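@channel sequence for tomorrow's demo:
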Amino acid sequence: MTSGQFPQFAGLDLLGCGVLVTDPQFTIVFANSALESMLSVSRRALVGQVIGTIFPGSGLTELLKQVYDGHFEQKRQDVTFGLPNRDPITVHSTVVGLQEPALGALIEFREIEQQLKVDRAERLIEQGQANRELIRNLAHEIKNPLGGIRGAAQLLEQEMSVMDRAVEFREYTQVIVKEADRLQTLVDRLLAPHRRPKLISQVNIHEVCERVRSVILAEFPQGLRIVRDYDISVPEIRGDKEQLIQAVLNIANNAAQALSRQISDGNAVITLRSRVIRNVTLGKRRWPLALDLHILDNGPGIPGDIRDRIFYPLVSGREGGSGLGLTLAQTFVQQHHGVIECDSEPGLTDFRILLPLGS
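structure tokens (generated this afternoon):
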């Protein structure tokens, strides 16, 4: 049974998660293509089968009964079931009751790893929004007193010019002025993503990568190799080219600075890899195509004590680091409806930028 017999389900074939629909007798009346791939079972073999027969011992029949009986409009549960010729599979299932008389429920299946990635991406987006609000408010609160401190120090310096110890005291006022300027620069960097309007155009991501590559190699001309691994079929992105360059540059620059020992040994490697992936959920929206850009390095990895906080503002694993590079990179990418993920272990750190392709 295909989506043609149930035209209201045609869009379910575009989803990346597995979906099936049952009638009130627990019989499968529709299964989407993603479920075929997940189970390695054809739609034809699924449709017409009773849930308990296809998924014995999974508990799905009990979940359906609870939804059918009106105990829950929606029920979530992790279920495990065995399939012919393959190991048992554990998935996160969501059962939703349907109102049409001929239909019973819709069941969504997500592999646990996929569900964890979706949850993590949603948390990153929420965290980024909270960080941006905090930074913006904090920066504005700091900015006004800084101007007053600097101005008062300059006035004090002028008043002291007639004193015998003017030169000695001028050193102190200059410290105040310079530190106020340093903090002003930090505040300006915090506010930069919120001030500057995006300049939207068609952007070739490989031009972005090449710009970043040239900047990094100019700063680290010896001992560092940057490998290009591009998929030339990647279409152009609609976005702000300078923001995207800054986002990739911040990540690549962090990687290069973490590779100090490998650079000294002459075996430091950063890889820029581009791919296209299909059916990606970003910010609770499903995109048919997305850019999958990886910045990989063979450095020591991110310290475990900050690994879960690297996108927080002012968190840095490097002495003297401002802790703003990754925060700003995540902000710029999220402004393009994307997300940055990170996996790190000694010898391999992988920053992954996911950006939607298309409107």
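heads up for whoever presents: The chain has a mean pLDDT of 80.
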